[in-house]
Design brief:
Radius of gyration: 23 Å
Order of helices and strands: HEHEEHEHEHEHHHEEEEEEHHEEEEEEE
Structural class: alpha+beta
CATH superfamily of the largest domain: Creatinase/methionine aminopeptidase superfamily
Strand order of the largest sheet: 4-3-2-1-5-6
Number of domains: 2
Oligomer: single chain
CATH class of the largest domain: Alpha Beta
Largest sheet: 6 strands, mixed
Number of strands: 19
Shape: elongated
Distance between the termini: 42 Å
Length: about 350
């Protein structure tokens, strides 16, 4: 899988002769390979440079680009410079959202061309996942759903949050994940009111809510899901808050479709929580895009005016957090269509009592 042709086709729109990709996600999106390398995309011959650690695999896996090994006197910069000179390239786009200023200065000095900020070119393409990308994300989510079923069988009073997080990572890898999408969140009892709590030594107890937020990578693409489960019988307040969050997510899922803004989607879920009197307890956004990275753009947030494209993959994760008491978050991953959305998360969402 690569997107060299798609990137090259957008160059004229941005007034570019080429696009320089130096970030890990940019590299993988372009050539479908991670080799700590550099990609130069042009309407003619594309170039992929990497070193001796990755060259054999790159030559076997990368298609659509000339693969060249770096070495003494043959750095990525010198090889790209040769290609720029040979093709007479004058305006080269770069990933201004990820390239450090120091690196930009080095590239600017190295290339006989004008470096132009062009992060938007790549971000716009990556916002809409094609069927091959979607298939990878569906598989990653299948593994994540399976891991949730396994962790529910594992949970019992006395385990620490760290032990639960370790078991989650084991199950995600055992079931076929390549690596974690992010460090798992396991937040029990009062720690659940911290949306991005770090698992610690607290031992889970009967009567706790336990929030589990985790995901894996498959085919280079991420999954992400959250479930809040009860360890033993929950209180009436816990049940009430859980139902509010569930209804908020359902409202968001019903509203989700391509062509609306992220602000509109966020509002559909947020108004349910506000109407229930918990508006001040929902501080983050309804959802975010994900793909090669766990957080991409556009988002479903109060300030997002960007219209969501067909093929966007967004999380749906409203939450309510009561400081010092407990928190509830329920998160699925959805693929937007012109008519609505496809929810690729299959784990039960009704309150699970273990």
């Amino acid at each position: 899988m690569n997107h060299l042709k798609q990137i090259a086709a957008r160059l004229p729109e941005y007034g570019l002769d080429a696009m320089l990709l130096t970030s890990g996600p940019g590299e993988f999106y372009a050539v479908g390979f991670h080799g700590e390398g550099t990609v130069l995309v042009t309407a003619g011959e594309c170039l992929y440079c990497t070193d001796s650690r990755y060259i054999e695999a790159a030559e076997a896996q990368v298609t659509g680009a000339r693969v060249v090994q770096t070495g003494r006197g043959r750095s990525c910069r010198s090889l790209v410079r040769e290609a720029v000179e040979a093709q007479g390239l004058r305006r080269v786009g770069f990933e201004d959202g990820t390239m450090p200023v120091a690196a930009w200065r080095v590239w600017e000095e190295a290339l006989p061309a004008e470096l132009m900020p062009a992060q938007k070119l790549l971000d716009t393409l990556r916002a809409a996942k094609d069927p091959e990308e979607q298939a990878c994300m569906v598989r990653a989510q299948e593994i994540t759903d399976q891991a949730f079923a396994e962790i529910c069988r594992f949970l019992r009073p006395g385990l620490t949050e760290l032990e639960i997080a370790a078991r989650l990572q084991y199950e995600l890898l055992r079931l076929g994940g390549e690596r974690m999408s992010f460090d798992p969140i396991v937040a029990s009892g009062p720690n659940g009111s911290i949306p991005h709590a770090v698992p610690g030594p607290r031992r889970v107890e009967k009567g706790d809510f336990i929030t589990l937020d985790f995901g894996c990578v498959w085919g280079g693409y991420c999954s992400d899901m959250t479930r809040t489960v009860a360890l033993g019988e929950p209180t009436e307040e816990m049940r009430r808050v859980y139902q509010v969050v569930l209804e908020a997510q359902r409202a968001g899922l019903a509203a989700a479709r391509a062509g609306i803004s992220g602000r509109e989607l966020d509002a559909a879920a947020r108004q349910v929580i506000q109407a229930a009197g918990y508006g001040n307890c929902f501080g983050h956004s309804y959802g975010h895009s994900l793909g090669l990275e766990i957080h991409e753009s556009p988002n479903a947030s109060p300030g997002e005016e960007t219209l969501l494209p067909v093929g966007a993959v967004l999380s749906a994760e409203p939450g309510v957090y009561l400081p010092g008491n407990f928190g509830v978050r329920i998160e699925d991953v959805t693929i937007l269509t012109a008519e609505g959305c496809v929810d690729i998360t299959k784990s039960p969402k009704e309150l699970t009592i273990l």
